[in-house]
Design brief:
350 residues; Cytochrome c family protein; electron transport; TPR-like_helical_dom_sf; mainly alpha; transmembrane
Length: 350
């Protein structure tokens, strides 16, 4: 456990201690002994019992006696001296702890609290936030040292945080020092290839070919790195090389079984290449526009996260539900194949 973590735990413990002290302080106040406590309790119980009997009385001949006895009990209670009150204990230490807690909370706001805020984000979102925070320092270090490693660290943080202009600068500088650096090659290539989406300007054919060359070269230099195959698959799909793109993306899934970045594109490529598959053909024609090419959700909910049974899925497909239209004209074999596909996606999950 690092010193920073220990400090954060200590701050939290002191704040909690101050809160517990204040909440329990009244319970620690000393109460003097009451010598009449037993008699006070007896008379009170007698009064309550007599009141209960009077409330439930059905024989009115007993009322005078009950009222007399209740009056005696009340008179006895009145004759007793007042019960001693708790003497307030000192609050000096509690208030001192409260003041210290306020001070420490301010300190914790710039140390421990940000970690709580990051904990509420997804791992990718938290990573992006941390990458943005690191950018100024990494940029300054790269410009100061001018080493390939420093430029790559800056480029990775910029790429992961979608600060693409800095990523281009950092990776370009890294390639000047090492023209065969795979990460810099493939990431510069994909940034060039998708520049039109970022700027709204169409990419020229020459730039598209240059981007493809960068990505291919990066994949050839590092074929075992999952990202090499992922970006190669995306690039090949852009150029209409569906078979090669599918092979690269399936290779990516082999190298990184937990990777889900290519699911939608893999499904779309399979649907285009395997038109004889009724499930993918029906899904691509009728479902993908709302539920996403790979069932991950779009304007419609994720089918991978669905918990509907096969029978319930069939009913929704054939009869519709809410904003979803019905597809009653599906052939039995097409519906059966589609249901099998959706059940497989449910087992795979998100």
């Amino acid at each position: 456990m690092t010193g920073a973590v220990l400090l954060n735990v200590l701050l939290l413990a002191l704040v909690a201690l101050a809160c517990v002290w204040l909440v329990t302080e009244p319970l620690r106040a000393r109460t003097p002994d009451d010598p009449d406590a037993a008699e006070r309790a007896r008379l009170g119980a007698e009064r309550d019992r007599l009141y209960a009997e009077l409330a439930a009385l059905t024989n009115e001949s007993r009322r005078p006696d009950l009222e007399r006895r209740a009056a005696l009990a009340l008179r006895g209670l009145d004759a007793l001296p007042p019960a001693p009150q708790a003497r307030p204990g000192t609050r000096t230490l509690a208030l001192a702890l409260l003041g210290g807690a306020a001070l420490l909370t301010v300190v914790g706001a710039v140390t421990f609290v940000p970690r709580w805020q990051l904990a509420s984000l997804t791992p990718n979102e938290a990573g992006n936030v941390q990458a943005v925070l690191k950018l100024p320092g990494l940029k300054a270090q790269a410009e100061r040292s001018s080493t390939k490693e420093a430029y790559l660290a800056w480029g990775k943080a910029a790429f992961d945080s979608n600060t693409f202009d800095q990523a281009v600068t950092a990776y370009g500088s890294a390639l000047k020092l090492d023209p065969r650096q795979p990460e810099a090659l493939r990431r510069l290539g994909i940034l060039l290839l998708t520049r039109g989406e970022q700027t709204g300007q169409a990419i020229s054919a020459e730039d598209a070919q240059r981007a493809a060359l960068l990505i291919r070269t990066g994949a050839q230099l590092a074929p075992q790195e999952p990202e090499s195959q992922l970006l190669l698959g995306f690039a090949l799909a852009r150029f209409g090389e569906d078979q090669a793109a599918l092979a690269a993306l399936e290779r990516y899934r082999t190298l990184d079984p937990k990777g889900r970045d290519a699911d939608d594109l893999i499904t779309a490529l399979r649907a285009r290449l395997n038109t004889s598959d009724p499930a993918l053909r029906v899904y691509a024609a009728s479902c993908a526009s709302c539920h996403g090419p790979g069932g991950g959700g779009g304007t419609g909910p994720s089918l991978r996260a669905s918990t509907l049974t096969r029978a319930a899925l069939a009913q929704v497909i054939t009869q519709g539900k809410g904003a979803m239209p019905a597809y009653p004209d599906l052939k039995a074999d097409e519906l059966d194949a589609l249901l099998t596909l959706l059940e497989g996606w449910q087992r795979e999950g998100q």
